[in-house]
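ARCHIVE CARD
CATEGORY: sequence design from structure
SOURCE FIELD: tokenized fold
FIELD CONTENT:
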């Protein structure tokens, strides 16, 4: 295993984002204080809706908000996975109705949807719920973007990394066909609905053959996962640049002005990086190069080739 690892294995379970007090719906709660995070004075509003997988992306999203001038409003309830949004489990249905009502009232510039569907035996209900929310929010939000759910780990990272015989090979999971298929279905629904989709798999896994993708617990010297299904805050911050590029690509591809007029598409990677889009007045200068995303994915691939296949 590489050394030293960041965060340390001993502090790994604490390396997860926590909302300010009152800014998320706790256990048995169906609402929370609506907090304005990142750039609280910004004119642009970005609403985040989802479960603990929305929560795990908050460090990355808040970096985006601070750098590009977004007020971030999180309507998040851990444990309320998408398949429970219309059911009574843990008060999820009541919370979901509250979250949608507040999101629509804000008429945000962007709605980000994040949820857990990987490692689910039958993700059909989750996939349908994500699509339904995306379709519904299109009527109130100038743009809607879904964050993909990368394949989960097969073992607890703490247990694996503390094993006396731990290697990159033993602490790497092979992505299951069902996880990859579920993510593709969510992406296909998004395209059909005119909703953006951020594919996160390449930030966590690398294709090593036509049929296999390997997903290590540690990438370079950073532990990417807190547990089997949630990414570490440290790795989330490391992904700020590729996430920003992917977010802006989808924003310019699928965004609409509040009046319904379609925005011009984002410049292609071969275009001049100084070219402006119709939404430039609402964002900072457009980063049109995919370097952040592709660089992170290629580094993950090189890391796996060097360590997983040799250790």
């Amino acid at each position: 295993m590489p050394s030293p690892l960041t965060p340390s294995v001993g502090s790994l379970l604490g390396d997860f984002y926590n909302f300010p007090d009152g800014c998320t719906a706790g256990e048995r709660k169906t609402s929370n204080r609506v907090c304005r995070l990142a750039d609280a004075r910004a004119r642009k509003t970005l609403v985040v809706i989802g479960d603990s997988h929305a929560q795990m992306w908050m460090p990355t999203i808040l970096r985006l908000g601070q750098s590009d001038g977004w007020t971030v409003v999180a309507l998040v309830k851990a444990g309320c996975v998408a398949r429970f949004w219309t059911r009574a489990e843990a008060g999820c249905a009541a919370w979901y109705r509250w979250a949608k009502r507040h999101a629509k009232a804000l008429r945000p510039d962007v709605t980000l949807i994040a949820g857990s569907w990987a490692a689910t035996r039958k993700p059909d209900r989750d996939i349908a719920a994500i699509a339904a929310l995306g379709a519904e929010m299109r009527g109130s939000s100038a743009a809607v973007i879904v964050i993909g759910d990368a394949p989960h780990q097969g073992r607890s990272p703490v247990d694996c990394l503390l094993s006396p015989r731990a290697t990159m090979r033993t602490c790497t999971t092979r992505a299951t066909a069902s996880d990859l298929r579920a993510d593709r279905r969510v992406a296909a629904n998004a395209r059909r609905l005119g909703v953006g989709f951020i594919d996160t798999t390449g930030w966590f896994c690398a294709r090593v053959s036509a049929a296999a993708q390997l997903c290590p617990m540690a990438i370079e010297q950073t532990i990417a996962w807190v547990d089997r299904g949630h990414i570490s805050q440290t790795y989330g911050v490391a992904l700020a640049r590729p996430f920003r590029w992917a977010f802006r690509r989808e924003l310019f591809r699928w965004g609409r002005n509040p009046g319904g007029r379609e925005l011009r598409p984002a410049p292609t990677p071969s275009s001049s990086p100084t070219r402006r889009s119709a939404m430039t007045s609402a964002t900072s200068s457009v980063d049109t190069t995919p370097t952040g995303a592709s660089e992170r994915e290629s580094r993950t691939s090189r890391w796996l080739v060097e360590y997983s296949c040799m250790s």
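CARD ANNOTATION: The radius of gyration is 19 Å. The chain has one domain: 18-264+275-308.
SHELF: design records, drawer C
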